[in-house]
Write a structure and sequence with these properties.
Blueprint (H helix, E strand, L loop, with lengths): L5 E9 L4 E10 L22 H5 L3 E9 L4 E6 L2 H6 L20 H9 L1
Antiparallel strand pairs: 1-2, 2-4, 3-4
């Protein structure tokens, strides 16, 4: 369990090498402003519709687990065709390893329009 100063964040990254990496990172919990509160979430399900965002175009039949119980890491191969479609070596603005909000929220749409 967390000490309240840090929390776990689920990360999904497609590397330029053509590998998906899903991991849990311990990240600092920001101090709340005067009109904010911190809510501790002990468990949360992953909605099946979010799995596409989490694993992207990776071939999950190649998935391998590593890391530790406290910091697990899942890796899987992303097919070359999918890497090319994401813009490796092209002028496509959606590059691998580019950080963007993964949702249909207004900030995510603004971020994608700027690229």
């Amino acid at each position: 369990m967390s000490d309240g100063k840090t929390g776990l964040q689920l990360r999904s990254l497609i590397k330029a090498s053509g590998e998906l990496e899903i991991s849990l990172l311990d990240v600092p919990t920001p101090e709340p402003a005067e009109d904010e509160v911190v809510v501790r979430v002990e468990a949360a399900p992953i909605n099946p519709s979010d799995l596409g965002l989490l694993v992207g175009a990776a071939d999950m039949s190649t998935a391998k687990a590593s890391g530790t119980k406290q910091a697990p890491v899942i890796t899987a191969k992303v097919p070359d065709g999918a890497m090319r479609a994401m813009g490796r070596g092209s002028t496509n603005p959606c590059r691998s390893a580019m950080k963007v909000p993964a949702s249909s929220s207004r900030p995510a749409r603004r971020t994608l329009r700027r690229r």
